[in-house]
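Notebook entry, structure prediction.
Reason for the run: the old model in the group folder had no record of what sequence produced it. Starting over properly, with the input documented here first.
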Amino acid sequence: MASSNSTVTPSKLLHIDAIQTVAPGRMAKPGQSRRISVVAPVGLGILRSHLRIVLYYKKARKESALDVAAWIKESLNAMTPDMPVLAGRLRRDSEGDGFWEVKFNDAGVRLVQASAEMTMSEFLESEERDGREAQLAYWVDVDQENPYYSALFYVQVTQFQGDGYSIGISCSVLLADPLFLTRFLKFWAQTQTQMLAQGQLSKNPIFHLSNFQRPGGPSRIKFTPLDSTPTKPITTTTILFKVARARVLGSPSYTKLATHCLKEVMQKMEGMAVANFSLIINDHAGELKVESCRAKGLAQSNETFNDAFSKVWWDELGIEDIAFSEANKPVHVSYHVVSPPDEGLVMVMLPSDREDSLDLIISTTIPKKI
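New structure, fully documented this time:
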């Protein structure tokens, strides 16, 4: 029989203290947008799919997570005009021909300020960290019926007790793929570091997000238990492949290259078979192409590509070295492609015009084996 004097240990909470939109510092030219070419209607799975990156930092100097959030607001304002698609809004294009488009600089970036009632070390050492990490990277699924009002890019700064904080990134796959997002994060971190060194960011920021609240309103937007909420385990696995096009015989289509990667993951690695998958082809310049494909027949395919394919690790993209203040690299980084648990998602990433390499990177995400 339980003792009547027994007490229940209160949950440790994650507080969402403030949410604000960071507008780009310069307006985009009128009419700037990126068309999304779709073979079939954009499904709910694609609309909900997003990239999640969480970077954990120790405080580099006399800075707080509030300072970091304020600096992030200023640096995002300064550099998003150089990559305006990341501040874009999803809508059906004005020609009404069934296409979609991302209208540049139209939605801004959602900046979320949060605080956790535990230390960063305590969270990182938790056995259930992976299942609760989504709370550190704010995301709201895109509304399928009215996507125009849905944000596509979130940045969350979470202050832990003690001397740590995290920066969580959530970005729709209709805005960026892992390669493009990594390139953006490097550019952004470099920009912020330079602005700090040159004294272009506020030394004592007064524009903390939490300072802008309605009189008489709640001091925080909401809270969730950080240590007792049922975990949401990662249900998918993602493998990156590099394709050396110089070693590929002939000129196979991107679809053939993508299906080869999918076959490799299903047959030889840790993923389970899927009946359908979405294919996104991103050249970072023209249209974004989205296709719905069937995986039937992959197992019978005997097409080979010699040694053109090699597995790539996430840290080879350089995420582990991203420092938003001088020499303060993350102590831990996690990255996930969040997609439907019952189908595949393949992203073909072409090099940008600035890169000498002709190699492709292909991201392949499928459900984990149970």
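Summary: The CA atoms of residues 16 and 221 lie 6 Å apart.
The old model has been moved to the deprecated folder.
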